[in-house]
Every structure is written in structure tokens, then in C-alpha cells.
Amino acid sequence: MLRDRTLRNAIYDIVCGKVLFDEPMSRHTSMRVGGTADALVFPGNVEELRSVFCAMRSFKIPFIPIGNGTNLLVKDGGYRGAVISLKDIKNMSLMERGADEVLICADAGIALSEIVFLAAEKSLAGMEFCAGIPGSIGGAVKMNAGAYGTEIKDTIEAVRLMNGKGETREYKRNLLKFSYRNLDLPESAIITGASFLLNRGIKKQILARITEILGMRKAKHPLEYCNAGSIFKNPPGGVTAGQIIDEIGLKGTQAGGAKISEKHGNFIVNCGNAKAGDILALIDMVKKKVKEDRGLDLETEVKIIGEDG
Ligand SMILES: Cc1cc2nc3c(=O)[nH]c(=O)nc-3n(C[C@H](O)[C@H](O)[C@H](O)COP(=O)(O)OP(=O)(O)OC[C@H]3O[C@@H](n4cnc5c(N)ncnc54)[C@H](O)[C@@H]3O)c2cc1C
């Protein structure tokens, strides 16, 4: 797909060499599995992103934007096309909004943890719920990341998007379609940044909430293993996917090097030598058992891309 040397050289030139060809995606995803991407490209700013984007479109090369790869499962056969990492697009600024509010504008590549700790440092409340979510702004906005009763859409004022023509525009929140773990985007749109409206608060209280959340996560999640957070979305009705998996007795089930965590039923962990195929086998098995036992169709929260090995 992206084997042509002239095309590879063109991409190399656009991003001043910041591209890895035939790169194992296991090195760039929190699950630590996955075959090679033809190209993993790291544009350093929005202009470079636009040029990569336009090149991919004109050569009809498939592409996918990624952030920190913490909600991403790349299959063992890898990805034919370009994976565009937004990690190097990472400016951030603060703007006063009257006496009580501050707007934080962050590029897509900023890590959520950076915003959480910057906000705390500046005594700004509203981002604490994101403590411990290892994603980037772009990934968190696309996934409408959430925890402890709050979702990222609740703090967003606007999102910057690059559209199919490579043009960038800002959209106010009321024009965007957020839902549980999703932001509906036009085909091939890329999030380039977002702004968050935060309230002035009390630093000690903000830091205490962050510490509390990090403690809860450590107690409940199998952070000692590579994982991708919750594998399944919670079905409607109030019982979580994790509870259902626990009740059916699937915790601890293993396939190759992957295992359903004994600590949390909705986490599949890489015990060290897992293949994407092992994780996919567990996903299929859970879906089948939950359908048989509860009549429910569990939907994956983790995004699955690429080709079978
Ligand atoms: C230990 C752990 C705990 C977690 N806890 C939570 C939690 O509490 N709540 C929660 O919601 N999630 C959680 N997650 C999942 C994950 O961290 C979030 O979904 C996160 O927001 C994903 O961000 P990312 O940058 O890693 O996205 P990626 O995994 O890189 O990408 C995820 C999806 O977003 C798309 N995407 C990424 N960047 C862009 C962009 N710039 N423009 C358009 N699309 C883009 C990708 O194509 C992909 O479809 C957890 C994960 C782990 C490993």
C-alpha cells in the first residue's frame, strides 16, 4: 500500500524525517501488541499534519489519527496505510474568562495528565476526573473519555477539527454530537485541539480529589500489566460490563498470553507475550458467553484496527 519509495520519500520530507516505516505498533500502544504499520508519521505542527493529510488523500492511502494508543488494539497483521500520531502537536495556553473561569486551549497531542496537573497547579477545578486516564486530548475528545460520573464533553467549550479538505475550523460544543464514549466526526476528520472551561477552585481540594481518584484506580485496575482500559462499553441498564463478566465467572480466563484480569472483569491484560489474536479471542469468547447468559450484545469500547495476522 505504502511501499512506493517516491511516496515514502515525500512523506519523509513533509515531516522532516519524523516517520517510522514498517513500525511495530506494539511499541506505540498501551496493550503492547500489534503488527507493523506501513508508516507511523509524527507531524510536528498543524501545517505538517495538513500536508500529510492531503498527500494521503491524493494518493488514496488509508490513514488513521492516533494519540497515545491507550484505547487501541492493532491486529497482528498490522495496518496497511499511515498511522498519523498527533503526539508532537502539543501547545497549550490559558486565557482568563472573568473572575471565576479560565479557558485552557490544548493541542491534540497534549497528554490528559498534563492538563490535569496544570489545572491543579493553577487552582482550576473541573479536570480532576481525568486523573489516571492515560490518553491524549485528541483521543480523549474522540472517545468522550469519562470517569466517576463526568465526561470530557462536560468541560469542553470548543473542538478544533481538520476537515476532509485539510481546512481547520473550531466548533462550539453545542454543534458537536457527543455520546457515551464517542464524538461523531465526519469521515476522515482529525481533532487538532480543544478548549476547556474550568472554574477557579481551591488547590488543596483539587489535589486531594486527584489523589483520591488515583488511589481508587490503583486499587481497582490491574495497572501492573499492559492493558487498554475498559475493553467493553457498559450496556444500558446500570449493571457494568465488568460486573457481568465477573458474575458469569470469566475473570482469570486466559488465551495465549492474554488474560481477563482477576482484579477487574472489564480489563484484558497482556501477561507479557500476548498477541493481538489472543486478546481478540477473549473478546469473542466474552461476547458469546454474555449473549448466551444474559441475552446482551456487548460492544467493544477499545478500537480495533488492522489486518489479521
Ligand atoms: C489504564 C487505563 C485506564 C483507562 N481509563 C479510562 C477511563 O477511566 N475512562 C475512559 O474513558 N477511558 C479510559 N481509558 C482508555 C483511554 O485512555 C481513553 O479512551 C483515552 O481517551 C484514549 O486516548 P488516546 O490518545 O490514547 O487515544 P488512542 O488510543 O490513540 O485512539 C483512540 C481512538 O481515538 C481516535 N483518535 C485519536 N486521536 C484522534 C484525533 N486527534 N482525531 C480524531 N480521532 C482521534 C483513534 O483513531 C482511535 O479510534 C483507559 C486506558 C488505560 C490504559
Mean pLDDT: 97
- Rounded to an integer, what's the Rg over CA atoms? 20 Å
What is the count of helical runs? Answer: 7
How many structural domains does the protein architecture include?
3
Structural class by helix and strand composition: alpha+beta
Overall 3D form: globular
- Estimate what percentage of residues fall within beta strands: 25-35%
Q: SSE string, helix = H, strand = E?
A: HEEHEEEEEHEHEEEEEEEHHEEEHE
What attributes does this structure have?
single chain; 309 residues; alpha+beta; Uridine Diphospho-n-acetylenolpyruvylglucosamine Reductase, domain 2; Uridine Diphospho-n-acetylenolpyruvylglucosamine Reductase, domain 3; Uridine Diphospho-n-acetylenolpyruvylglucosamine Reductase, domain 1; 3 domains; six-stranded antiparallel beta sheet; four-stranded mixed beta sheet; 19 strands; 27% strand; globular; binds flavin-adenine dinucleotide
Would you kindly provide a written description of the structure presented here, covering whatever features stand out?
The chain is an alpha+beta fold and 309 residues long. It has three domains: 5-85, Uridine Diphospho-n-acetylenolpyruvylglucosamine Reductase, domain 2, CATH 3.30.43; 92-220, Uridine Diphospho-n-acetylenolpyruvylglucosamine Reductase, domain 3; 241-305, UDP-N-acetylenolpyruvoylglucosamine reductase, C-terminal domain (Uridine Diphospho-n-acetylenolpyruvylglucosamine Reductase, domain 1), CATH 3.90.78. Helix content is 27%, strand content 27%. It has seven helices and 19 strands. The chain has helices at residues 5-14, 46-58, 112-121, 137-142, 203-220, 241-248, 276-294; strands spanning 19-24, 36-41, 63-66, 72-74, 79-85, 92-97, 101-107, 124-125, 146-147, 150-151, 156-162, 168-172, 178-179, 182-183, 190-200, 254-255, 258-260, 268-270, 303-305. Strands 6, 7, 8, 11, 12 and 15 form a six-stranded antiparallel β-sheet that branches. Strands 1-2-5-3 form a four-stranded mixed β-sheet, covered by helices on one side. A hairpin with a 2-residue loop joins β13 and β14 (182-183). The radius of gyration is 20 Å and the shape is globular. The model has no long low-confidence stretch (mean pLDDT 97).
